């Protein structure tokens, strides 16, 4: 019997983006035949989905381990890789399964062009995030990465710079930075490289968060997009909770007859959101 009688809706726009779907499909195609595939870094920032793929034979390796992988298949995930990873994998006679997201490949091309034009490249993004490592690798690491505007010392900035963004950053924060720099007399060439899918989801999620008593955002603890979307939900609906697995659901959060919205990041599998739904229905 449904004792709390919760009314539950899963956000239909949540779930894997096309970049992640493509990477997982590529991995499964290989695993269906090979039962072993090395993947450079977490294929998707979701512990539950990783565990599912590991059961099928996916082996996650760190970048420093790539030099030891020889004569096999190595998958490069959606985040993209710097040129060094390609060189190293090829040198060791590996077959690269390249699942870099087409959107990220386009951004890598853009940043390379900016570098060739001698532009001063700045990237609003997370230090050491794999996507950022992939981007800075295109320009011999000659880009300044910052997560917070306070990391930049205004007086040391060039008169003119080109500003890129990590694909999963919050669009409002990005344009606040643009405005701040312009107000301080800096000529900013704006390269809004926030993924449209991420941006649209952020926008749509506001309506979703508003239309429910409580929101459960399901995402891996390393998901940048999950954090951005959670903050967005929390602004609209203070009764929003972040969970990574069904076990983290706390019955005390809910009251009888409430309406609950379940949503996720671009790295959250639909099956996991359905499990959360099932668990809430049993409360
Ligand atoms: S969030 Fe956007 S850029 Fe990142 S993998 Fe998904 S589709 Fe590609």
Order of SSEs = EHEHEEHEHEHEEHEHEHEEH
If strands are numbered along the chain, what order do they take across the biggest sheet?
1-12-10-11
Characterize the biggest β-sheet: 4 strands, parallel
- Rg, rounded, reads 21 Å
CATH hierarchy: architecture of the largest domain: 3-Layer(aba) Sandwich
Number of helices, where a helix is a run of at least 4 consecutive DSSP H or I residues: 9
What name does CATH use for the topology of the largest domain? Cobalt-precorrin-4 Transmethylase, domain 1
Mean pLDDT: 95
Query: Quick one: CATH superfamily of the largest domain?
Result: 4-hydroxy-3-methylbut-2-enyl diphosphate reductase, catalytic domain
Low-confidence stretches: none
CATH class call of the largest domain = Alpha Beta
Q: What is the number of strand segments?
A: 12
Percent strand equals 15-25%
**Proportion in helices:** 25-40%
Structural notes for this entry:
The protein has 283 residues and is an alpha/beta fold. The protein has 3 domains: 7-15 and 197-281, Cobalt-precorrin-4 Transmethylase, domain 1 (3-Layer(aba) Sandwich); 18-100, Rossmann fold, CATH 3.40.50.11270; 103-194, 4-hydroxy-3-methylbut-2-enyl diphosphate reductase, catalytic domain (Cobalt-precorrin-4 Transmethylase, domain 1, 3-Layer(aba) Sandwich). The chain has 9 helices and 12 strands. The strands form 3 sheets. A 4-stranded parallel beta sheet has the order 1-12-10-11, sandwiched between helices. α4 (102-116) packs parallel to α5. The model has no long low-confidence stretch (mean pLDDT 95).
């Amino acid at each position: 019997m449904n004792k709390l009688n919760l009314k539950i809706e899963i956000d239909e726009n949540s779930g894997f983006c096309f970049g992640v779907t493509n990477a997982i499909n590529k991995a499964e195609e290989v695993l269906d035949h090979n039962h072993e595939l090395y993947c450079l870094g977490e294929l998707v920032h979701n512990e539950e989905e990783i565990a599912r793929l590991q059961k099928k034979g996916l082996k996650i390796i760190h970048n420093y381990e790539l030099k030891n992988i020889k004569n096999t298949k190595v998958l490069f995930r959606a985040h993209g890789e710097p040129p060094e990873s390609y060189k190293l994998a090829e040198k060791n006679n590996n077959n690269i399964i390249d699942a870099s997201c087409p959107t990220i490949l386009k951004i890598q091309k853009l940043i390379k062009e900016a570098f060739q034009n001698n532009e001063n490249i700045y990237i609003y993004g997370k230090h050491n995030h794999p996507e950022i490592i992939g981007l800075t690798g295109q320009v011999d690491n000659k880009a300044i990465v910052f997560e917070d505007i306070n990391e930049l010392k205004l007086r040391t900035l060039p008169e003119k710079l080109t500003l890129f963004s990590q694909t999963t950053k919050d669009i409002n924060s990005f344009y606040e930075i643009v405005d701040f720099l312009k107000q301080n007399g800096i000529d900013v060439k704006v390269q809004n490289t926030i993924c449209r899918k991420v941006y649209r989801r952020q926008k749509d999620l506001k309506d979703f968060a508003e239309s429910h008593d409580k929101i459960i955002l399901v995402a891996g603890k390393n998901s940048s997009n999950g954090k951005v979307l959670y903050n967005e939900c929390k602004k609209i609906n203070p009764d929003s909770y972040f969970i990574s697995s069904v076990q983290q659901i706390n019955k005390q959060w809910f009251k009888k007859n409430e309406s609950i919205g379940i949503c996720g990041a671009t790295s959250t599998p639909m099956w996991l959101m359905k499990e959360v739904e099932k668990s809430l229905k049993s409360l």
